[in-house]
Design brief:
single chain, alpha+beta, five-stranded antiparallel sheet, 4 helices, 10 strands, 26% strand, globular
């Protein structure tokens, strides 16, 4: 019994040493996303390096204001692996955010990324809410040149509180950060979440839930 225990411990230690000795970083220069590859994996399969071009690593468009003529008065122009295949496996992406006066980037979360935002023009109210049970709102009004961080997975928002348009640049710690807009997810799911569930969750009448769901 003692010999078996010693052997098990030795194997466990050996495995740990092998794990620690492994290389967690990329073992190649790059892995440009091959969107035509049908292989399912965590991310995209690699394009043949011999077929890689400079365009795989570039994107043109962040100098162009997004279309803010919508109900929320904002637009997000993303530069993720979808737009830049060369970002695949590199763990970084960015986006331009445009907001008209009193426009909002509604409460949302990025399930796979922390976000760091820099205000390029305007006055921007930002904030995030901590997890249960505290649900603490941490918010601030930023001016041109200010930077703010939204921790991974936490619900956050932005609102233009100035008299002119706001332009901000966000950098995210994933090539595919994902976005879950809270209102869209709750009231615009397909199929709908039961009105009974939402009415109890928000402590409102079912008719109110149905009206909101209809809008989405």
């Amino acid at each position: 019994m003692q010999t078996l225990l010693q052997l098990s411990l030795l194997l466990a230690l050996t495995f740990c040493q092998l794990t620690i000795a492994s290389d967690p970083a990329s073992l190649q220069d790059f892995c440009v996303a091959d969107r035509n590859n049908q292989v399912k994996m965590n991310g995209f399969a690699c394009k043949n390096p011999a077929m890689v071009q400079a365009n795989d690593f570039s994107f043109t468009g962040l100098h162009i204001p997004g279309n803010t003529r919508n109900a929320i008065g904002s637009a997000v122009t993303a530069a993720t692996v979808t737009q830049i295949p060369g970002l695949n496996t590199l763990g970084i992406s960015m986006a331009r955010i445009d907001l008209v006066p009193w426009g909002i980037n509604p409460p949302h979360t990025h399930p796979r990324a922390t976000e760091i935002l820099t205000v390029i023009e305007g006055s921007l109210e930002v904030g995030f809410v901590t997890s249960n049970p505290d649900n603490r709102l941490i918010s601030k009004i930023l001016q041109k040149g200010d930077v703010f961080v939204f921790p991974i997975g936490l619900i956050h928002f932005q609102r233009n509180v100035g008299h002119g348009n706001v332009v901000a640049i966000a950098t995210l710690s994933s090539q595919n950060p994902g976005v879950i807009t809270i209102a869209n997810s709750i009231f615009g799911s397909k199929p709908d979440i039961s009105t009974d569930i939402l009415a109890k969750a928000f402590q409102v009448d079912k008719s109110i839930v149905q009206k909101i769901q209809w809008r989405f």
